[in-house]
Amino acid sequence: MIFLTSVLLGFLFQNVxxxxxxxxxxDQGRSHATSFNAFMHRLxxxxxxxxxxxxxxxxxxxxxxxxxxxxxxxxxxxFASPDFDKIAFEEDYSFIHQxxxxxxxxxxxxxxxxxxxxxxxxxxxxxxxLYLSDSLFAxxxxxxxxxxxxxHVMMHSTDLESAQGSFKGFSxxxxxxxxxxxxxxxxxxxxxxxxxxxxxMLDFSVSKYSHRVWAAYDWFGSYIFTAIVGxxxxxxxxxxxxxxxxxxxxxxxxxxxxxxxxxxxSLFPPASRTNDFFSFGAYCKSSxxxxxxxxxxxIDDPKSKGTIxxxxxxxxxxxxxxxxxxxxxxxxxxxxxxxxxxxxMKGDRPLGLGNHVKTSGWVPQNQILHHNKTVxxxxxxxxxxxxxxxxxxxxxxxxxxxxxxxxxSWLIKEKGFGRIMNKFQINVRExxxxxxxxxxxxxxxxxxxxxxxxxxxxxxxxxxEGAFRFNKLLKYYGKMPAYFYPKSLDLSYIxxxxxxxxxxxxxxxxxxxxx
Length: 515
Known about the structure:
Its main location: membrane. This protein is an alpha/beta fold and 515 residues long.
């Protein structure tokens, strides 16, 4: 009887294959790791073991996973270079800067393999079932997965990058049907807002020819600099463990078993999807933990018309900003005495700020945004902050600094509850105009409420659906059957990118004209 009961229970509750999973992210990768944290914790609910690897230069937060950090104390973190501050405050970020970042990641990986080689191989030897690879700058993580021979999944902390999507055979198709025949040959990289949107195109529109040209230029440039310049740096860093023909980042992406991204589908414009691509990003983190009394008493001041929070992420240090940045912000917020302003900044409180302004080296951003008195968020436009603005339905003014932040800001602006400031035009009049526009017009709050409803309207929570897809992948031991993947993976880049059409058709036309 006991045996029969056990058999029946076995049919009713079939075991899910559990796995040991190593997530590898960029050096001191708090920002990227926290983008993946919610999904990692959801996998833990299915009894998977998740661990986190990165090069650690100083202590970091508890990520809720086993720590497999390579201690690089005594070495300089290239990503902490003054050059980064110069890029953030003074330069218009482009695909060229990504090549620099791959160089930074490669420099650290080279140091690891020269000076921390035992730790590197100690981590690899733990016999992981699957590697999850940060799509950006996690060079030694790629090496771990490559030499282990185990399957790997690409994890994108924001939207799918242009080059990585091309390596994987993904595409943004212009889709049409003529007499029930599908044509999927022309990629509309020119009609999608580019990842590296310049400040001269904050009004980006596909109806403008120059904007479409720039979008195509950004897409091809990103592809070339990642595939050639960034790839060369990674080959150099991994040369001692991956011999000739050395590491290939394009091939590494092509061989990946799946692609997960934290960019919510509802925020991004409609785009084609393949079987091996999924966005788990449309979720909201709980803010049930109460605010501590220090912030709560300040926010609940009965004289306040509402709370304004200024927070530019972990990378931006106001002490290193050009003088006119601080002067502009302090001048404007000192005028907002009817409101309570919380300003996240490292270091001592600067002189001259009013009593209605509270500064802190760290603020509980998500909890403050969810407080019912918060009326405005001034942000850099990182995806995590963008999603917290969505989940709290908080109107936002963005001052994007680098990376895809301008593109994220543009997406929110298009939804009607955000505005964008050009970091090269920071002045009192501009900032005051943007703040008064949002505070004085209820349409921004109404649009934020409306989009949140759309954002959360899903038949299955995305984290649950992502976990389902992940468990399906594990059912096939980390690699789906060949028919699951797009045929473009088997095509040359010339064919897959339609370069043959772009070259042959003009040549053929010239031949006809010459006859």
